[in-house]
Amino acid sequence: xxxxxxxxxxxxTGQDGSNMVRYLLKNTQCTIYGAIRRLSxxxxxxIKDIExxxxxxxxxxxxxxxxxxxxxxxxxxxxxxxFAAQSFVAESWNTPIQTFTTNTLSxxxxxxxxxxxxxxxxxxxxxxxxxxxxxxxxxxxxxxPLKPRSPYGAxxxxxxxxxxxxxxxxxxxxxxxxLFNHEGTHRGKEFVTRKITSNIARIKKEIMHGEEIKxxxxxxxxxxxDWSDSEDFVEAIWxxxxxxxxxxxxxxxDETHTVKEFLDLACEYAGxxxxxxxxxDEQNPLNTVLLYKDTVIVKINEQLxxxxxxxxxxxxxxxxxxxxxxxxxxxxxxxxxxxxxxxxQLLSIMPS
Length: 352
Known about the structure:
This protein starts with 5 loop residues before the first strand and ends in a 6-residue tail after the last helix. It is an alpha/beta fold. Strand 14 (about 290) and strand 15 form a beta hairpin. It is built from 10 helices and 15 strands. The relative contact order is 0.13. Helix 2 (about 65-75) packs parallel to helix 4 (about 95-115) and helix 4 runs parallel beside helix 5 (about 150-170). A 7-stranded parallel β-sheet has the order 3-2-1-4-5-6-11, sandwiched between helices. Strands 8-15-14-13 form a 4-stranded mixed β-sheet, covered by helices on one side. Strands 7-10 form a two-stranded parallel sheet. Its EC number is 4.2.1.47. It is an enzyme of class 4 (lyase). InterPro entries: GDP_Man_deHydtase, NAD(P)-bd_dom, NAD(P)-bd_dom_sf. Its cofactor is NADP(+).
């Protein structure tokens, strides 16, 4: 299936990009071009296991319009899947201009290249639940107002509108999908879920070897998030790209959990929950700690709270699921266990 089909993927060394490569190699006969800004210095950790003649890396700078144009013109891809982004919300407060340039202008560059030299190409733009901001109602569907509360969220809102303009004005098959939080074993350790599972695995090892335990520091552990599995999402995205008509979509698990719930499950699956006790300070939540016997293993760091924190993210993907006839395979608990098991194995610890 899809023999002689060419797919250009940006952000190929990230979680979603690398998972999309694996999905396409397994399920299609596509030739895949993975866009890397500088081949010699990029971090290839997430794709080092991929060895297939149908997958090749190319030099492409998403901040350089000419670089994008040349690659689109020369390769003539049938699909462009744009995962490349400055995707860390907290970092967007430190680098707002770079965040907007990376997440928004690059989308316009690709759409212009498609319009000028490859109008039959199908384009995917990765959106974010951060576009929605604080809830007017929950769960949040495609009709929820856009009220971003971070430079990152604003950059994704702008990309969504650009995609809509090009789709309606030039009849380009361009889709934008609001993605709620999605995780997995290839998630970066700067994100809270992987930060939790990698550090709980480390703490497990320190406990096993009788070493001094360095506490894990977290921000708002009561923030509610809607977590799914990245591998489920890439399957859905490919399905969207092969629908008869382009439109906007939303992907979510349609349930919500606190950071604390994720942490508690991670401790359980790591096999250290028996001797854990939460010491909760309701008067001053910053003093709340998680103890292993008498030792603090998790504490709250005020500096890890975000400006304009969104308290709840909770999606409604019913419309998307019905349109593309898709359902996720991995539950919240299965996701946490998969990530914990992975990080334990990286430290040569057998999962429980």
